[in-house]
Design a protein that fits this description.
With 280 residues, this protein is of the alpha+beta class. It has helices at 3-7, 13-21, 36-43, 47-59, 86-96, 101-110, 125-170, 175-195, 220-236, 258-270; strands at residues 26-28, 31-35, 67-72, 78-84, 117-118, 202-204, 243-246, 249-257. Mean pLDDT is 79; it is low at 1-11.
Length: 280
């Protein structure tokens, strides 16, 4: 069963998104494994609670395949990820939320005939060290790219500030001109906050330039749907969503990391049925 077949089953929209984002297992020492992060998403439980329950089950001798692996997350931090095989994943979900057992069965069925990401044999120190070095090099490259983008964004902010200062100085001729220029500056400031939300690393939904290529963007419901998808991907990937001041909304608006926006963009390109209701 592939992703498209699974998405056509009688699940709610939320459940469909969960299953779509969970369509991958990893192979450890030749055995397909499921992570505690995937179990967290499936059962809608807190990550720390899921790991705590898995620790208890391990002490009780009920999940002997539990494997702990240090991985590098999107913040270049080393985090401990728990993995269990198919049999033990059923034990964990049965303890956490038995009502999700059917979805767990579908998860494993969907991965039966699907190529799986192969992790190195961690009993082989050379292979493990090579895999760790590769992961660190990738993380360093991503950090370097992010720093470069931030420097460009900082430069853009300074140039914008200089332009605004010059505009305010030239507007001092008359009271009416000053009032008009003030409105212009406020409008430009709000636009700047949208386009360069947090030094170029985060963008609000309305500042994503390519959205018009996929959506009509005529109603608030379209923007709400786009924001909902971006929030879902951010929460699933454990990314922050800093608030950006916006005069139209008392509590501001969410901004989303460039990595999340990239995932959303690729999903729209690769799946013509993704958010089909709102597309052109």
């Amino acid at each position: 069963m592939n992703e498209m077949k699974l998405m056509n089953m009688d699940y709610s929209a939320a459940e469909q998104r969960v299953m779509a984002h969970m369509m991958s297992t990893k192979v450890i020492n030749g055995v397909p494994m499921m992570s505690h992060l995937q179990i967290t998403e499936l059962t809608d439980k807190r990550q720390d609670w899921v790991k705590s329950v898995m620790d208890e089950l391990r002490k009780e001798g009920l999940i002997p395949t539990l494997t702990e692996i240090l991985e590098v997350n999107h913040k270049n931090q080393r985090v401990k990820v728990y993995y269990v095989n198919e049999r033990d994943s059923h034990v964990v979900v049965a303890r956490l939320s038995p009502e999700y057992m059917a979805f767990l069965v579908d998860f494993w069925m969907a991965n039966r005939d699907k190529p799986m990401a192969q992790l190195p044999d961690f009993s082989d120190r050379v292979a493990a060290a090579r895999a760790w070095a590769d992961a660190m090099e990738k993380a360093d490259a991503e950090k370097l790219r992010a720093d470069s983008e931030q420097l460009r964004a900082d430069k853009a902010v300074k140039e914008k500030a200089w332009i605004e200062d010059k505009a305010r100085a030239s507007a001092m001729g008359t009271a009416s001109a000053a009032k008009k220029e003030t409105k212009k500056v406020v409008k430009e400031n709000e636009k700047l906050k949208e386009q360069l939300a947090i030094n170029g690393t985060y963008l609000t939904a309305r500042a994503i330039p390519w959205l018009k290529d996929f959506f009509r963007l005529r109603t608030n419901s379209e923007w709400a749907a786009i924001g909902k998808e971006l929030r879902f991907i951010s929460q699933y990937r454990n990314y922050d969503m800093p608030k950006v001041a916006d005069s139209r909304w008392r509590n501001g608006v969410n901004s989303y990391h460039k990595d999340i926006i990239g995932i959303f963009h690729r999903s729209l390109i690769n799946d013509g049925r993704y958010m089909e209701k709102f597309r052109k």
